[in-house]
Specification:
Blueprint: E1 8-12, H1 17-28, E2 37-41, H2 45-62, E3 67-71, H3 74-78, E4 83-86, E5 90-91, H4 99-106, H5 118-142, E6 147-150, H6 155-165, E7 170-173, H7 177-189, E8 196-203, E9 206-214, H8 223-230, H9 233-238, H10 240-249, H11 257-260, H12 271-277, E10 295-296, E11 306-307, E12 310-311, E13 314-315, E14 319-320, H13 324-334, H14 349-358, E15 362-369, E16 382-390, E17 393-396, H15 404-426, H16 429-437, H17 440-445, H18 448-461
Parallel strand pairs: 1-2, 1-4, 2-3, 4-6, 5-10, 6-7
Antiparallel strand pairs: 8-9, 11-14, 12-13, 15-16, 16-17
Helix pairs in contact: 1-2, 2-13, 4-5, 4-18, 5-6, 5-15, 6-15, 15-16, 16-18
């Protein structure tokens, strides 16, 4: 390391099979971080019994001096942390038959992922936000100067709430849709992704490639090549929804066709729409990440079928069957029976920490409060913009106005987020209904009375995690 100080990094939700391996390996790949203190925390001891030995093997393999703590005690993990990384889920993760998806579908609303906005995203937020505020309150007590790096969805609603409730905590929301889409666009236009220059801004999962060039800002404008790709059946087939959005609104959006289809009213309203734009056998967009959550309740009669994965300490609590092969791979890696991929991932997290520790600036796209950064989106909402980070902290980039049509699409999603945040903070059930009723796909798919019934059923299905929500019916004003 370049100095004698050991950065302390707390990873909360270390039982997330997808993210934990990736982030630990990334952190250990930087000389400035490789001798730091790493605290892995999860509420599931069985998962820690796999991830802990895996991290220990990584440290041995790489010959670095990192010190490892593995614990179920969240406050102990946070004590004195310089960086706090959160990757967790509460109640349900991405099971295809979870209530967030199944109940709306029974009422004619066909979502795809249901983790960002919309009816499913709103209820995921309501389940998850209390746990994140608990983390934030503990950070205020034991690591008030730490930088909070959040991966938990629904990103915009969560980060909006953190900004309002915990304004003294440094925080940024992280996603990989910008860099993932950049790699995809490079293939569409026939260049290496390292040769792209781009400016991206909007909201999480719905940011826009405002400029796309070859090599530098002076280089070739690559949008003409991208418009050629739109008319190539092979390339169009790979990203139908996003190409259609570009056809009609002029710009390419960051999140996958699978996601974008549920953020707008045009692509999943009818069976014919779904078959045309998101057919079952198509491959729209890059694959959505499916982190395995630490707070997921073990269950075999609800949600996905459960199975067990053996560990050195006995057996892992039941996990959805579709995740079992991944956990078996982790077991083999921890035991030295399978190789570990140490190639640094495209996730921003470790590079941000390295920039703060080294003072070497790093540019990324992150989610922060809209303090005049995007001038035609509401002040205070959460926006995704370019950010520079160094040892002086985060420096978000001022964008100004988005093209009006793009801001208009974003605002339809921000409306949902704003009412959901209001409903959560005030425990106002009516605001939650109004949030869901304003969702573009829900309002295009179901009558308003049906949406109210849907919301009522989701409150029942999520009752274990939700309490104190009062119904405050809006009064008419004549």
């Amino acid at each position: 390391m370049s100095n004698t100080r050991r950065p302390r990094i707390a990873l909360l939700g270390a039982g997330s099979a997808t993210f934990a391996r990736r982030l630990i390996a990334d952190v250990l790949s930087w000389p400035e971080l490789a001798d730091g203190d790493i605290a892995l925390m999860d509420v599931d001891q069985g998962r820690l019994d796999l991830i802990g030995p895996l991290a220990a093997r990584m440290i041995r393999d790489l010959g670095v001096g990192a010190r490892l703590t593995v614990t179920t005690d969240r406050k102990a993990a946070l004590e004195g942390a310089d960086y706090v990384i959160t990757t967790l889920a509460v109640g349900y993760a991405y099971e295809p038959d979870r209530p967030d998806v199944a109940i709306p579908e029974a009422h004619g609303l066909h979502q795809t992922v249901a983790d960002t906005i919309g009816v499913g995203g709103v209820f995921r937020y309501l389940r998850t936000m209390p746990a994140l505020l608990e983390i934030g309150r503990e950070m205020e007590q034991v690591c008030p100067h730490a930088l909070w790096l959040n991966y938990v969805n629904p990103m915009a609603m969560i980060m909006w709430t953190i900004g309002k409730v915990l304004p003294g905590i440094r925080n940024v929301g992280l996603c990989h849709s910008v860099q993932g889409t950049a790699e995809r666009l490079a293939k569409f236009v026939g260049v290496e992704h390292t040769e792209l220059s781009y400016q991206v801004a909007g909201i999480n999962h719905q940011a826009w490639f405002l400029d796309l060039r070859h090599h530098t800002y002076r280089g070739e404008d690559l949008y003409p090549r991208l418009r050629e790709a739109l008319h190539d059946p092979v390339r169009y087939e790979q990203d139908r929804v996003r190409f259609e959005v570009m056809r009609h609104f002029g710009y390419f959006v960051t999140e996958s066709s699978r996601h974008m289809a549920e953020y707008v009213p045009w692509f999943r309203r009818t069976a014919a729409d779904r078959e045309r734009y998101t057919p079952e056998l198509a491959s729209p967009g890059h694959t959505t990440h499916t982190p395995s959550p630490p707070h997921l309740d073990a269950r075999s009669s609800q949600g996905a079928p459960a199975t067990s994965v053996p560990t050195a300490a006995g057996s892992l609590a039941s996990v959805p069957a579709y995740r079992a092969p991944l956990w078996e791979t982790i077991r083999q890696q921890a035991a030295g029976e399978a190789p570990i991929d140490y190639v640094r991932s495209r996730e921003y997290c470790s590079a941000i920490i390295r920039a703060v520790e080294s003072g070497i600036p790093f540019r990324f796209n992150g989610n922060v409060p809209n303090t005049g950064l995007i001038t035609n989106l509401p002040p205070g909402c959460n926006v995704e913009v370019p950010i520079f980070v160094d040892n002086a902290g985060l420096h978000p980039v001022h964008i100004g106005d988005l093209p009006a049509q793009l801001a208009g699409i974003n605002r339809t999603n921000v409306n949902v987020q704003e009412l959901a945040v209001q409903g959560f903070l005030n425990r106002d059930r009516e605001a939650i209904f109004q949030s869901c009723a304003l969702d573009p796909l829900a309002s295009a798919s179901a009558p308003i009375d049906t949406i109210r019934t849907m919301v009522d059923e989701l409150f029942v299905a999520n009752a274990k995690w939700l309490d104190g929500y009062e119904s405050r019916r809006a009064q008419s004003h004549g």
